[in-house]
Design goal:
The protein is mostly helical and about 120 residues long. It has one domain (about 30-115). The chain is built from three helices and no strands. It has helices spanning about 1-60, 65-95, 100-115. Helix 1 (about 1-60) packs parallel to helix 3 (about 100-115) and helix 2 (about 65-95) runs antiparallel to helix 3.
Length: about 120
Amino acid sequence: MLRSCVLCCAMAGVLGLTVGCSESKDTKSSLTQRDEVAKTMKVKLDEMDKKLEELKAKVEKASGEEKTKLEIKWKESAGKREAFAKKYEELKAAAADKWEAAKNETEHAFNELKKAVE
């Protein structure tokens, strides 16, 4: 009887370690995925910064009605860029269980910025 109890406790311990290890693996892979997505978003942010610089240069060269239209577009784009940058920072700091939602929000902010710039 005592031997059975000891064996059951040992098996429960092994099972607990196995479940605990696989759960931490999932967390680690989630964080790795989050970091990879964050790197991709950083590249997209850099690309959009270049496009915004090009747009600003167009604003400075333009005149009259064209300049007014480009200024409005640039201001709107700059605001959307800030929103995207904020979501990007939130994504980088997101916990393993919340990074998917942060990713979706960041992608949405990127798409809004892309529409505004193009």
